[in-house]
């Protein structure tokens, strides 16, 4: 990734607003900039818009929405902000947290009203750390549907998406971005001038060297994000003298079906399930969250664990397309007895039965185990049982470029780069410095809320070509 002066560069075309990346952040930014009256061009390295969004469950946390009100759910931006800060031990910037918590609900209602995205709120289970049921998703509860619907909305708005084009160089002039250079698969190069540039190309999860540098505990883990997340925004930002923060922050996940590579919803745990290692024993407090559980699972023999749940929980999980895919692929093991389940998973029968008995006794007594997990008000597991072998994975990084209230990238001295914006994983999010600070949905929160903020601000700019 290069940053070069624009002196002597002849540009092939010029656009008012350019967006690099066609995941949720970039597509939302493009829609917002277009609505602000700007002509927009989206650049995407893949053949079609996908990104890490397509690999997610597509769930976006938002407080005080009309869908919550219709379901009789009380919530507010202040409560959401408090949950984010509590999960991340007050590490995130409180102003950014408040900004995103207040912006994401209106952003979802805008996407629904203006672009037809049929959101609904999940009411039958709650993710760890959230004080209210505030996860919103589309009918399939999949990130694929989210990015596909956003891409269709962008196309319907007449916004061009230039696919199979990789930006490798930014050009600067007088402290601002003047344009960029992109390369096609056949080696052809085009230079595009722009009035404003939105970096929506996510973080560095696909860059093994950067992961080893900033998140060494997951250096050898399965990467479940998009391989195109090579840290382009971070590297460009550093070359421009931009401020960065919380580069060790990341979202892991301790529930990816192994060896199938399919995400398994954490409802399998929060609704009363538990995880055991190859010895049939529990090894951690699973209720803390799926992000921090990734490293816990990877520390077990073979880097895998087994999540044990039941048919009732499977019914809840089945609302997610990923879970249905896992069932179709044979990743979900079924058994009428715990002994049969142990045999099918090659786990010690006595140990697994003893672990189940211990968990169910804690549920009956409302007790807390030696790891710190409380089982008060957690439903019992009943036959027929279900289980899935899982591994830990790195999903995406949460640190990145520091931005201001309008998503403009800031220099190390705190001054904004006037026409450079960052959203989603390209910007420093609200998860702090480690996996434990990640509150479910923080990634798509930054993509949707910050994407709209960046697009609105970029679209409102009016640059005159030199």
UniProtKB/TrEMBL annotation:
Organism, as annotated: Methylobacterium terricola
One Pfam family cited in the UniProt record for this chain: FAD_binding_2
Required cofactor(s): FAD
UniProt keyword annotation of Nucleotide-binding present: no
GO biological process entries: steroid metabolic process
Keyword set, alphabetical order: FAD, Flavoprotein, Oxidoreductase
Domain of life where this protein originates: Bacteria
The protein's name: FAD-dependent oxidoreductase
A GO molecular function held by the record: oxidoreductase activity
Residues in FAD-dependent oxidoreductase 2 FAD-binding domain copies: 17-437
């Amino acid at each position: 990734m290069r940053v070069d002066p624009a002196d002597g560069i002849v540009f092939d075309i010029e656009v008012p607003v350019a967006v690099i990346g066609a995941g949720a952040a970039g597509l939302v930014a493009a829609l917002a900039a277009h609505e602000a009256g700007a002509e927009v061009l989206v650049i995407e390295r893949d053949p079609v818009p996908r990104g890490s969004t397509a690999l997610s469950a597509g769930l976006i946390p938002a407080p005080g929405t009309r869908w919550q009100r219709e379901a009789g759910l009380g919530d507010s931006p202040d409560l959401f902000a408090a949950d984010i800060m509590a999960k991340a031990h007050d590490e995130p910037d409180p102003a950014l947290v408040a900004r995103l918590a207040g912006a994401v609900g209106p952003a979802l209602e805008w996407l629904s009203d203006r672009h037809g995205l049929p959101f609904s709120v999940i009411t039958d289970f709650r993710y760890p750390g959230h004080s209210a049921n505030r996860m919103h998703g589309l009918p399939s509860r999949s990130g694929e549907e989210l990015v596909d619907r956003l891409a269709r909305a962008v196309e319907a708005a007449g916004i061009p998406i230039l696919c199979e084009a990789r930006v490798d160089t930014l050009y600067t002039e007088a402290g601002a971005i003047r344009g960029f250079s992109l390369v096609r698969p056949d080696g052809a190069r085009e230079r595009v001038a722009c009035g404003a540039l939105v970096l929506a190309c996510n973080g560095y999860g696909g860059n093994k060297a950067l992961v080893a540098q900033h998140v060494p505990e997951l250096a050898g883990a399965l990467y479940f994000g998009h391989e195109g997340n090579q840290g382009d925004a971070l590297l460009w930002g550093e070359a421009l003298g931009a401020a960065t923060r919380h580069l060790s922050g990341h979202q892991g996940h301790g529930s990816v079906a192994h060896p199938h590579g399919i995400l398994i919803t954490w409802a399998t745990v929060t609704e009363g399930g538990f995880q055991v290692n190859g010895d049939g024993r529990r090894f951690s407090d699973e209720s803390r969250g799926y992000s921090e559980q990734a490293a816990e699972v990877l520390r077990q023999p073979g880097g895998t664990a087994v999540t044990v749940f039941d048919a009732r929980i499977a019914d809840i999980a089945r609302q997610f397309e990923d879970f249905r895919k896992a069932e179709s692929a044979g990743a979900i093991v079924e058994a009428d007895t715990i002994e049969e389940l142990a045999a099918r998973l090659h786990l010690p029968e006595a140990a697994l039965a003893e672990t189940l008995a211990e968990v169910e006794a804690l549920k009956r007594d409302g007790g807390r185990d030696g790891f710190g997990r409380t089982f008060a008000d957690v439903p019992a597991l009943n036959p027929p049982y279900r289980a899935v072998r899982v591994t830990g994975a790195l999903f995406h990084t949460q640190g990145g470029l520091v931005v201001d209230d309008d998503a403009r990238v800031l220099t190390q001295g705190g001054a904004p780069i006037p026409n450079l914006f960052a959203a989603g994983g390209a910007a420093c999010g609200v998860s702090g410095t480690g996996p434990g600070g990640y509150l479910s949905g923080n990634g798509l929160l930054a993509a949707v809320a910050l994407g709209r903020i960046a697009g609105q601000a970029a679209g409102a700019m009016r640059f005159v070509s030199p």
